[in-house]
């Protein structure tokens, strides 16, 4: 499912599809690792409408919600296995 | 002389490595974008002198912020024997592109994969040979912070500077995007890491420090602890130092100057000595304060402060980085003003610069420590201080709020949140000592001059009808409505030059040093007028050095003049409202 990065649920990794920000910010984001094809995760949302804390690879950084609304991500079709589910399979 | 440039993305440890190799004292902090100017230092490597140049961090060779352009300009204009590229070994998935881009402009690279200690802990397995082969340059794992591998790097540098120096060929520059695919391929080939890792200490700490409800209270607690600790450790040191200086005066100076004419002994004893020693006794407090600040800076908390405050800062027209600059300004406003170079948008940068002079720097801290100690009990004093820090932040943000339309901008920014790092004791002490040293240097030059000038003003033509009195009387109509009396107004006048002079000037005007001065203040002031004085001293122009830095960074005389006038007007209005309000309420 395609959605905006700003709408992505916390701690649900998704894949970047398109970065629709200004070219300059896109370049900075790419330097921080966020570019089409890479996996991104929203670690937490700042309070009072503050920025998102994002994680791409080994890098964490903050990005404001307005800009995050310009980035499209694709959620994996199958929800990642929850720990309880995984342990159920193992048992 | 051979020349080598230290290049790399922000916060990869370039300045740490620079200090390691050269023994220099570039500032280091766990905050991307700390270095905003070139720093160079000579070092003897394998028999030849090499000039090592520490550059501001760059994300690629085409970034537009002022600090990045400083680095780009240097790289474009300077003949280099080699480029020492510092990459964060745990972030090669995004940092290799810089190596490829530098390669494409013909840089002679030596690649240092820094933070090898963190890479090891994170389970990274890096094939340096494969990287070296692909990049056509030597690649070394090092840990600049702990010194691992630095000797090997120095040896390598010594042997690889034999070619003629050359300039980078920016005509062949390709956009960073062109290297992304190559970067991904190279990363896949040379770096392996376990697919998932359990949450580390950084994630756990962030859970608390960035908590929507607990985060801000924790910040306040931390600040409060900073002052309590500064007080608890610094005050006994200060008292001891003061006692020592006092006995030096009685045992040596008084007998020694006994034979001199009255004018000279007066100038030496109650001019220079009283003035300067009153200021000097704050050296231990400055030392403790900066050691503690260094701990905060090097921990990585600054970036978290930016994250937490961004929501509020956005409402006053600034962003989270502006809040961090204010915190840096707690040390000294000048580097904080320079630190705004990381902000690309000119208007956003100006608005941030407008707020920084209100940041309560260590020179003002010294005045407030003294006044709070003299007029409030030891239990209240730390809270008085804390309230002044909040006033400082509030005034800064209020100023931004008032002028946010005039400097409207919406600069998008993405700011890295580096992992928390343990401060190194040596650097912490080093930082405290360096600040202490520059404070002492100031105390022995500027302050001596200021103090002598004040002494002359207060003693000529004669102590009863001095020039100082004339000046004080002139300002009295302006300052008495805000509860600032004559002797304080002269001190404020000199405080315009540097806040460090204020206490020294007061000591001379009152004719008493240290403890005596405190007693005198307690007798002539009450808490309301003292707080009004502190509020004024907090808000009006910090010092000429700040004005100069403002002018240099903004490149605008009009803007600088505006900032000065605004701070003077605001200082008066705030003190007036406070003083008259408190009096009206019966305090
Ligand atoms: N764990 C670890 N930390 C390091 C190492 N080298 C540097 N650091 C830390 O990384 C942070 C950044 O170091 P700096 O030397 O200021 O980085 P810089 O590249 O000069 O940063 P900018 O000036 O902002 O571009 C500091 O907290 C250092 O203590 C290392 O080898 N290992
Ligand atoms: Mg640096």
Distance between the termini of chain B: 68 Å
Bound molecules: guanosine-5'-triphosphate, magnesium ion
The most extensive interface, with participating residues per chain, is:
A-B, 33 and 41 residues
Overall mean pLDDT score of chain B? 91
Largest sheet of chain B: 6 strands, mixed
State the CATH class of chain A.
Mainly Beta
Reported CATH architecture of chain A: Roll
Q: In angstroms, what is the radius of gyration of chain A? A: 14 Å
- Write the CATH fold name of chain A: SH3 type barrels
Approximately how much helix is present in the residues of chain A? 10-25%
User: Can you write the helix and strand succession of chain A as a string?
Assistant: EEHEEEHEH
What's the gyration radius of chain B in Å?
Answer: 27 Å
Q: Uncertain runs of chain B with pLDDT below 50, 5 residues or more?
A: none
Counted up, domains of chain A total 1
Q: Could you name the CATH homologous superfamily of chain A? A: Ferrous iron transport protein A (FeoA)
Can you give a write-up of this model?
- The complex is a heterodimer of chains A (91) and B (587).
- Chain A has a single domain (2-74), classed as Roll (SH3 type barrels).
- Chain A contains 3 helices and 6 strands.
- Chain A has helices spanning 23-31, 65-68, 83-90, and strands at 2-4, 14-19, 39-45, 52-56, 59-63, 71-74.
- In chain A, strands 1-6-2-3-4-5 form a 6-stranded antiparallel β-sheet.
- Chain A is globular.
- Chain B is α/β, with parallel strands linked by helices and 587 residues long.
- Chain B folds into 2 domains: 2-192, Rossmann fold; 217-410 and 429-584, no CATH class.
- Chain B contains 26 helices and 11 strands.
- Chain B has helices spanning 14-22, 66-77, 92-104, 116-121, 128-135, 150-159, 180-190, 201-209, 215-257, 262-280, 283-299, 301-315, 320-329, 333-339, 346-355, 362-375, 381-403, 425-444, 446-459, 467-479, 486-495, 500-510, 514-524, 527-539, 544-554, 557-584; strands at residues 2-8, 39-45, 48-54, 82-88, 109-114, 125-126, 139-141, 191-192, 414-416, 461-462, 465-466.
- In chain B, a hairpin with a 2-residue loop joins strand 2 and strand 3.
- Chain B is elongated, with a radius of gyration of 27 Å.
- The interface between A and B is large, with 33 and 41 residues.
- Guanosine-5'-triphosphate (GTP) binds at residues 8, 10-16, 28-30, 32-35, 56-57, 114-115, 117-118, 143-145, 298, 421 of chain B.
